[in-house]
Automatic annotation (TrEMBL):
Record keyword Oxidoreductase present: yes
Region feature (Disordered): 1-31
Source organism superkingdom: Bacteria
PROSITE patterns recorded: THIOREDOXIN_2
Keyword check for Oxidoreductase: yes
SUPFAM superfamilies linked to this entry: Thioredoxin-like
Protein name: Redoxin domain-containing protein
Gene3D superfamilies named among the record's database cross-references: Glutaredoxin (3.40.30.10)
Domain Thioredoxin: 8-158
InterPro entries cross-referenced by the UniProt entry: AhpC/TSA, Peroxiredoxin_AhpC-typ, Thioredoxin-like_sf, Thioredoxin_domain, Tpx_Peroxidase_subfamily
Keyword list, A-Z: Antioxidant, Oxidoreductase, Peroxidase, Redox-active center
Length: 165
């Protein structure tokens, strides 16, 4: 099910997929992380200024995501080699998945593909069972930040309790 903006809606079982994650052929997808929340961060292009800032922000916010035991997966139509260079340049250590061939297939299934031939700036949070619990489509020129993601994770109630020692 999709909303008025075309993006997959909360309550929908997340479509399964795996995409290339490394040049050596390793594939990754949300199904590998069942039992944990998954954040899918669709984005237009590795080297655009907004995308670079957005992915770097998620890397910087990783300790917050880890409080919820959440996994972040970036998804764009760029190639693995572009992802690799971009991740090294921006210090991104979470997986950047290549929705390159067939171009945008996963972005299309999630309702995050644009007429310009790239992924839109869409965020989708999956619960530990693989159901969409929150989705948001941001204008291409706007970094959506991490607050919506953190609110969605908070609603899941998966935050780890920190034990004082």
């Amino acid at each position: 099910m999709t909303g008025p903006d075309g993006l997959i809606r909360p309550g929908t079982p997340a479509p399964e997929f795996t995409l290339p994650a490394t040049p050596d052929g390793r594939r990754t997808g949300p199904g590998q992380f069942r039992g944990r929340p998954v954040v899918l961060a669709f984005y237009p292009a590795d080297w655009s200024p907004v995308c670079g800032d957005q992915m770097a922000l998620y890397q910087a916010a990783m300790p917050e995501f880890e409080r919820y035991d959440a996994v972040v997966l970036g998804v764009s139509v760029d190639s693995l080699w572009s992802h690799r260079a971009f991740a090294e340049a921006r210090g991104v250590r979470f997986p950047l998945l290549s929705d390159f061939e067939p171009k945008g297939e996963v972005a299309r299934v999630y309702g995050a593909y644009t007429p310009q031939g790239q992924a839109g700036r869409a965020l989708v949070v999956l619960d530990p069972a693989g159901t969409v619990t929150w989705s948001y489509l941001s204008p291409a020129e706007v970094n959506p930040g991490a607050d919506g993601i953190l609110d969605a994770l908070d609603q899941l109630g998966t935050e780890r309790q920190v034990v004082a020692r």
